[in-house]
Amino acid sequence: MPDNSLFIRGKGSLFVALLVYVDDIEVTRSDLAIIEEVKKQFNTNFQIKDLGPLKYFLSFEIARQKKGIGICQRKYGIEFLKDTGFTDSDNTQYRKTVGKLLYLTITRPDISFATQQLSQFLDKPTNLHLQAAQRVLRYIKAAPGHGLFFPSSSDLLLKAFSDSYWGACIDTRKSVTGFCIFLGNALIS
Question: Which secondary structure element, helix H or strand E, spans residue 77, and what is its range?
Fold first, then answer.
């Protein structure tokens, strides 16, 4: 299914992509002159404000370095921790917490397994599930800026690793399987 908010144009080695969300537009390119041309065209029809290089978009924080690009959801994670403060067995709060944890796994694959386990008990969470969710929140609090890093100089070799632990789940006695996929040295899934 195509993403109706992503527009791409390319000709030869030139490339430009626009990502539009409500009143925010992010532009990337293969040549800086193309961005200047796009901004000039937009400015003739709309009043735009150039915020410079991308640093924050849809709760993602982007940090550029010579070695590559880091992406995390630090601010989202901190706000999430502030909103959570739950102590009783409230299904609505538990669901909200697990939903936000699921969104946070985009840049925090280190919490994917725990979040997946918590999401299995959305209907009737017990105090043990609430304690487990609070443990994940404490883990996030210890390193809210933890995220993904995409090195600028890396091969485009796709590598995948998986492992299984037969009958390992203490709740269901089902097997547990995990995987990670890298593009070069960057974890992508």
Answer: helix 74-84
- Residue 104's Cβ-count burial label (10 Å; 0-12, 13-18, 19+) is buried
Residues 32 and 112: their CA atoms lie apart, in Å, by: 37
Instruction: Give the residue among 96, 86, 142 at the shortest CA–CA distance from 119.
Output: 96
Q: In the prediction, which pLDDT does 88 show? A: 45
Tokens encoding 100 = 């936000």
User: Averaged in consecutive runs of 10 residues, what is the pLDDT profile of the chain (189 residues)?
Assistant: 71 80 77 78 81 82 88 86 62 88 92 91 87 92 90 88 82 80 87
Q: Which two tokens stand for residue 18?
A: 């626009």
The token pair that represents 79 in the structure block: 């706000």
Find how far residue 30's CA is from the centre of its chain.
24
Q: By C-alpha distance, which of 178, 176, 177 is closest to 189?
A: 178
Residue 168's contacts (CB-CB under 8 Å, 6 or more residues apart) are 175, 176
Nearest alpha carbon to residue 175 among 187, 188, 165: 165
C-alpha 113: how far from chain center: 15
Spatial separation of the C-alpha atoms in residues 4 and 11, rounded to whole Å: 21
Nearest to 129 by CA among 139, 119, 144: 119
pTM over 0.85: no
